[in-house]
Amino acid sequence: xxxxxxxxxxxxxxxGDSAVIKCTYSDSASNYFPWYKQELGKRPQLIIDIRSNVGxxxxxxxxxxxxxxxxxxxxxxxxxxxxxxxxxxxxASGRGKxxxxxxTTLQVKP
Amino acid sequence: DGGITQSPKYLFRKEGxxxxxxxxQNLNHDAMYWYRQDPGQGLRLIYYSQIVNDxxxxxxxxxxxxxxxxxxxxxxxxxxxxxNPTAFYxxxxxxxxxxSNQPQHFGDGTRLSIL
Lengths: 110, 115
Fold this sequence. Notes:
The structure holds 2 protein chains of 2 kinds. By secondary structure, chain A is mainly β. In chain A, about 0% of the residues lie in helices and about 60% in strands. Chain A is globular and about 40 Å long. Chain B is about 0% helix and about 50% strand. Chain B is built from no helices and 11 strands. In chain B, the strands form 2 sheets. In chain B, strands 2, 4, 5, 6, 9, 10 and 11 form a 7-stranded mixed β-sheet that branches. Chain B has a 4-stranded antiparallel β-sheet with strand order 1-3-8-7, with no helix packed on it. The interface of A and B includes residues 31, 32, 34, 43 and 93 of A.
């Protein structure tokens, strides 16, 4: 069935460093790839998304890249700040629904 | 202020009891979704609805039921058949466009525990 694998499960970086989270999807028909940030006990919030007709998208310190051939997409956060600490989820579209990855807990150390 | 409202925030269920979680949205979205989130895990889809009076099972529908009588409302019932209901339940909604997935917006969630 449809599946999204996300790595790493935990990531610890020093403030100011970059962080990269990677996802792989199985459904070649997937064409929409959002990323969500979830702080402890709160709702997931959309931070960036990309569609299959684009290879890269950037919004200030956040960027997402997509390799459709390899079925990989990645989230890049530059100049990390303590407030970036949260759980990040990737997702891939599939037949009117989203398939989510397992999540990555990002810790940014001051 | 537009958004998705889930209630209650915390809910306790006794053995053999059915409980219903409320989800209301005023975003005029056609599609609504219910997810279950367990500690350290991703979001798993329980049920979703693309239009009023229609809904489909997600990956873990067993022990749950839904209804979609109004566009704004998509209540989830956790039945006594769901033997491990303790989890964080999230409702989401999105615009529904044919062949085009749209961003999903989430509510604040309901935390369900067994007494």
